[in-house]
Structure formats: C-alpha cells, structure tokens
Design goal:
The strands form two sheets. Strands 2, 4, 5, 6, 9, 10 and 11 form a seven-stranded mixed beta sheet that branches. Strands 1-3-8-7 form a four-stranded antiparallel beta sheet, with no helix packed on it. The protein is mainly β. The N and C termini lie far apart (40 Å). Strand 4 and strand 5 form a beta hairpin. The protein is built from no helices and eleven strands. It is globular, with a radius of gyration of 14 Å.
Length: 126
C-alpha cells in the first residue's frame, strides 16, 4: 500500500519561510500528478499548487503565486513545497495528494486525487 507522509510544518512569523516535504513509500504507484492542498478552520480544502509528475508542468493558485514553489524529486519519490514570505492567512493544515490519472489540467478538486497524506500544520503568527 502506498503512503504519503508530509513533514515540515511549523510555527513561523510573518515573512518567514518553510519547506514542506511529502514522501511516498510502499508499493509503486503510477503518479501522474501531485498537489498541495490546504485547509484552514471553517474553510474548504483548496489546491494551492500542483505538478505534472513526469513533465514538471506546474500550477499555482493566485494566492500563493510568486511566493510558493512546488517541486519534485522523481528518484526519491518526494514532493516539496517551498513557501516564502508567509502570511497569517497561510495558516492551515497542508496536505499532499497524488493522482493516478490526468483528467484535465490543472486538476483543482480534491476528488481529482487518489491518495492523501495525513497533513501537516503550518501556523504563521502576525
């Protein structure tokens, strides 16, 4: 069984940086795309960044464009999210997700993804 395990969440001050990691382990899973979602209290889970696994095409939500960078290491089967210039409104639980198919691009809905990590908390203090 494939598992996704996120790490890197923390408490940071406004303007700080964090790098989240998502490591895939277990049985080989044909990954076509991966994404980072976040969910703040009382809000829906939203896609903030996604990447086509083999060709590296990326997508960013407007709220994080020019601040966050998604990347992947195909050899290590690890997804990253570099977050710079963090703001209090970035506070949320961050989830990585993997998709075994491409239905369209970008795939922005949680239902587009097949596997999920357990989430990691990012808190940005003002």
């Amino acid at each position: 069984q494939v598992q996704l395990v996120e790490s890197g969440g923390a408490l940071v001050q406004t303007g700080g940086s964090l790098r989240l990691s998502c490591a895939a382990s277990g049985r080989t899973f044909s990954t076509y795309a991966m994404g980072w979602f976040r969910q703040a209290p009382g809000k829906e889970r939203e896609l903030i960044a996604a990447i086509r696994w083999m060709i590296g095409i990326t997508y960013y939500a407007d709220s994080v464009k020019d601040r966050f960078t998604i990347s992947r290491d195909n050899v290590k089967n690890t997804l990253y999210l570099q977050m710079n210039n963090l703001k209090p409104e970035d506070t949320a639980v961050f989830y990585c997700a993997a998709a075994g198919r491409i239905s369209r691009w970008p795939m922005t809905r949680p239902g587009d993804y097949d596997l999920w990590g357990q989430g990691t908390q990012v808190t940005v203090s003002s």
